[in-house]
């Protein structure tokens, strides 16, 4: 089994590489950012609910960077560990064993970003 990544380092690295893509592919990145902004806008669902869904989909897709970015957003939105665990239970229910293993990584990402948040409080 692969080691659990340091999600802070991973998200910083991915963000840096995305800056290159923004410079080289501005239209593509603008389109993606517009899509992200529209999809995450408050509507029938609030931002925290949408981020919980995104975290579950990150588990399903086995996307470490997704876990990092969405766990960080959830911490910033005031999500609790209990909320994260319940949404991950649904991801496991829908995705079986592989989702269970990736849910463990999602907990690690959420706790990593929560630890940094505790220092700010």
Structural summary, described in words:
There is one protein chain. This protein is mainly α and about 120 residues long. It has a single domain, classed as AhpD-like (Up-down Bundle), CATH 1.20.1290. Helices cover about 85% and strands about 0% of the residues. It is built from five helices and no strands. Helix 1 packs across helix 2 (about 25-40), helix 1 (about 5-25) crosses helix 4 and helix 3 (about 45-60) packs antiparallel against helix 4. The mean pLDDT is about 90. InterPro entries: AhpD-like (IPR029032), AhpD_core (IPR004675), CMD-like (IPR003779). This is Carboxymuconolactone decarboxylase family protein. It comes from Massilia terrae.
Short description:
Residues 26-107 form the Carboxymuconolactone decarboxylase-like domain. The protein has 121 residues and is mainly α. The protein has helices at 7-24, 26-40, 47-61, 64-76, 81-120.
């Amino acid at each position: 089994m692969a080691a659990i990544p340091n999600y802070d380092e991973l998200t910083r690295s991915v963000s840096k590489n995305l800056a290159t893509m923004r410079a080289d592919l501005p239209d593509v990145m603008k389109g993606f950012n517009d899509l992200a902004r529209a999809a995450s806008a408050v509507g029938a669902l609030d931002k925290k609910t949408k981020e919980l869904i995104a975290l579950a989909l990150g588990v399903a897709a086995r996307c470490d960077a997704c876990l990092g970015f969405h766990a960080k957003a959830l911490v910033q939105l005031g999500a609790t560990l209990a909320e994260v665990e319940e949404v991950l239970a649904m991801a496991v229910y829908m995705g079986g064993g592989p989702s269970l293993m990736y849910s463990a990584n999602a907990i690690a990402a959420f706790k990593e970003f929560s630890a940094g948040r505790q220092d700010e409080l």
